[in-house]
């Protein structure tokens, strides 16, 4: 069992109910039943020795540390299907400390505005730079290295673009995409305008003039996506970073942002659990969103312009088709043949 889930089972009763919103309560219920048999079992059958086996079902909750690997692999498979062999950049949009309290009181409102504003900024920058059609993926993170509230968006942007009038694909510059200063200036102005216009949000009296937006190259093709999948879909705190549990205290390791050296932080178990659980997202809020050529509707709408552009772009470049592999595992009895899923049983 995950170390975090073990702590949740032992100290979950100590949490204050008034601090648990419905989203956190649902997450706790799902994670406490993950792989316990309470959700049902998967029936496996060996193709060689006909050995039968049953394994408990996972909860599948996006905040469950035991289900993160599956989420990572699923995201990677989806992105691989849309992969263009060009250089990729990662742009990180952050908000100052003065606005982070909104992430606790009005998470859904703030995060939705961050997505819409960041998308508009990237679309306008792409249109002004090359006037072609491109795409990008936005991923929401809510914590810093100390696991405090620090909402920010990572944008995965291919350097290449498709020129519709010329019907040509351009790989773009592999070393430079956009000016981070220009991005930060437009990001600040548009997000503050959106917050000011929102009926449930109010701006604090003082707001920094300089915001931080980072833009850096992260590699090319599938290797870049594999790196990003590990970085973007990791849990709030991996079990390997929880280094000590004693006397109702939990100590975890992190990398200090200033020195880039390893540091530790110790908290009472109840406070540690709330530190992690405060990052549970509102129900229905999409943490990962695709835009432009990478949008999911480009696959569903057969005659959409996005699908045609994506197909044309991929035909111009040697992109290998994705391989859909069946879910299998090695037989624990004979150790030679593969087992396949033959059914799922649910508790009545």
TrEMBL record:
Domain annotation Transposase IS801/IS1294: ranges: 135-299
GO term, biological process aspect, one: DNA transposition
**Pfam families associated with the record:** Y2_Tnp (PF04986), Zn_Tnp_IS91 (PF14319)
Q: List GO molecular-function terms, semicolon-separated.
A: DNA binding; transposase activity
Q: Which residue ranges does the record assign to the Transposase zinc-binding domain?
A: 9-95
Q: Which residues form a coiled coil?
A: none
Q: Please, which domain of life does this record's source organism belong to?
A: Bacteria
Q: What is this protein called?
A: Transposase
**Native source species:** Enterovibrio norvegicus FF-454
């Amino acid at each position: 069992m995950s170390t975090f889930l073990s702590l949740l089972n032992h100290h979950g009763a100590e949490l204050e109910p008034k601090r648990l919103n419905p989203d956190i309560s649902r997450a706790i219920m799902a994670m406490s039943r993950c792989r316990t048999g309470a959700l049902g079992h998967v029936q496996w059958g060996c193709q060689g020795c006909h050995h039968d086996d049953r394994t408990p079902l996972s909860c599948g909750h996006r905040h469950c540390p035991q289900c993160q690997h599956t989420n990572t692999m699923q995201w990677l498979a989806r992105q691989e299907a849309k992969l263009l062999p060009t250089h990729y950049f990662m742009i990180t949009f952050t908000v100052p400390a003065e606005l982070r309290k909104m992430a606790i009181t009005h998470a859904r409102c703030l995060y939705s505005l961050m997505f819409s504003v960041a998308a508009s900024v990237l679309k306008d920058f792409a249109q002004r730079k090359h006037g072609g059609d491109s795409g990008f993926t936005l991923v929401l993170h809510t914590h810093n290295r100390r696991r405090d509230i620090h909402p920010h968006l990572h944008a995965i942007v291919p350097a290449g673009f498709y020129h519709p009038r010329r019907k040509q694909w351009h790989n773009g510059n592999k070393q430079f995409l956009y000016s981070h200063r220009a991005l930060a200036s437009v990001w600040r102005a548009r997000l503050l305008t959106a917050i000011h216009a929102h009926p449930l949000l109010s701006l604090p009296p003082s707001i920094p003039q300089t915001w931080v937006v980072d833009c850096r190259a992260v590699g090319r093709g599938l290797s870049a996506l594999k790196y990003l999948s590990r970085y973007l879909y990791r849990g709030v705190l991996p079990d390997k970073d929880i280094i000590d549990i004693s006397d109702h205290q939990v100590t975890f390791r992190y990398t200090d942002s200033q020195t880039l050296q390893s540091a530790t932080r110790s908290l009472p178990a109840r406070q540690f659990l709330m530190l992690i659980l405060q990052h549970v997202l509102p129900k229905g809020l999409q943490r990962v969103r695709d835009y432009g050529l990478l949008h999911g509707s480009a696959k569903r709408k057969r005659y959409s312009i996005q699908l045609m552009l994506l197909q044309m772009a991929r035909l111009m470049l040697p992109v290998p088709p994705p391989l859909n592999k069946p879910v299998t595992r090695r037989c624990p009895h004979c150790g030679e043949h593969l087992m396949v899923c033959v059914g799922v049983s649910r508790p009545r």
